[in-house]
Amino acid sequence: MTYRVTLIPGDGTGPELVEATRRVLEATGVTFDWDVQEAGADVMDKYGTPLPEVVLDSIRENKVGLKGPITTPVGTGFRSVNVAIRMALDLYANLRPARFMRGIRGPYEDVDIVVVRENTEGLYAGIEHDVIPGEAAETIRIITRKASERIVRFAFEYARANGRRKVTAVHKANILKATDGLFLSVAREVAKRYPDIAFEDRIVDNMCMQLVQRPHEYDVLVLPNLFGDIVSDLCSGLVGGLGVAPGANIGDELAVFEPVHGSAPKYAGQNKVNPTATILSGMLMLRHLGEKEAADKVQNAVAAVIAEGKDVTYDMKPTRDDPTAVGTQEMADAIIAAMDAR
C-alpha cells in the first residue's frame, strides 16, 4: 500500500529535519507518495500568508500530514501556523510522549509519560485585544463541555488501547472555578465510563512539582491547552529535552505529526540539529497509519543509535563542542543502518 501524505518542510531547520525523517521513513519499506506543501515565514512574500489555503486542502484530502517546525514571531507578527492548522482542521488532541531512552543524560531513568493536551480552545483560541494600547490588554479563555469531554475521552481511549494504567486530569479548578471547574467536572464524569483505568486529578502547579520529584508515578496526563503546552515541555525536560520530543495533532478524521521544538533559524542549513524529535514524530505517524512493525523498527533504531552515543548530534554528546558529533543527515544515516542491522 502507498500512503499519500502531506509533507510540510517548514522553515528554519525544518527542511533538513524533514529530509532526514523522510529518508528514515522510506527505509522502513513503507511506500509514501509525498504531497509537498509550503508554509511558514519563508513563503510570506510569495503567498501573502504563512499558511496558504492549499496546504489545508492538501491535509483535508490526504487525511495525514508530516510537518517540520515553523517559526512563530514573538509578541508581534503573524499568528502561529501550528495553532492555525490545529484550529482550522479541528485537530483537537495534541499527543506528546516523553519516554526515557538509554544514552540520554538526565536526572531520571525509565520515565514514560504521555501528555494529552486539548488543542482548540482555552487561551490559545487567540481571542484577545488591546483595552488601552500599550497599557492594558485582555484575553478570553473559553472552556467548553464538548471540547473537555472529547479530549478526556481521547486520553482514556489512548490509555486503554496502549495498555496504560492511569489517567491524571490536570487543572487549576481551585482558582479558575468556572473554566477549570468545568474541565474537572467533565473529566470525572468521563472517568466513570472507564472503570478499568485508574483516574485522579492534580492542580497544575502541584503537578509540576510532583513531576520533578517523582515522575514515575504518572502515566497519561490530560490537560487544557495552555497547561498542556507548558507541562509537556517539562516532561520533555525529564527525558532529555525538546530535541527528542515528538508530537501528534489528531482529530476525528485528520492528523498532523510534528516535533515539539521550534525552528532554530540560526542553525538553518548547517546540518547540525538533532533530528530525533522529527523522526519520532514520523514514527507516531506510522503507528497512526497502522504500520506497527515499521514504527517499532524506527523507534528501536533511534534508541539503539542514541544508546551507542557514537553517531549523534552535538547536543547529545557529553560536551556540546565534542568533535565526534555528527550532523543531522549523518545521524539519520546511522538510524537507517541500525534498522537494516536488526
Describe this entry's structure for a reader.
- By secondary structure, this protein is of the alpha/beta class.
- It folds into 2 domains: 1-106 and 239-342, Isopropylmalate Dehydrogenase (3-Layer(aba) Sandwich); 113-238, 3-Layer(aba) Sandwich (Isopropylmalate Dehydrogenase), CATH 3.40.718.10.
- Helices cover 39% and strands 19% of the residues.
- It has helices at residues 14-27, 44-47, 53-62, 81-89, 145-161, 179-191, 204-213, 225-238, 276-288, 292-308, 328-341; strands at 2-8, 31-36, 64-67, 93-99, 112-118, 128-132, 136-139, 166-171, 198-203, 220-223, 246-250, 255-259.
- The strands form 2 sheets. Strands 2-1-3-12-11-4-5-10-8-9 form a 10-stranded mixed β-sheet, sandwiched between helices. A two-stranded antiparallel sheet has the order 6-7.
- A hairpin with a 4-residue loop joins strand 11 and strand 12.
- Helix 7 (204-213) packs parallel to helix 8.
- The longest helix has 17 residues, at 145-161.
- The model has no long low-confidence stretch (mean pLDDT 94).
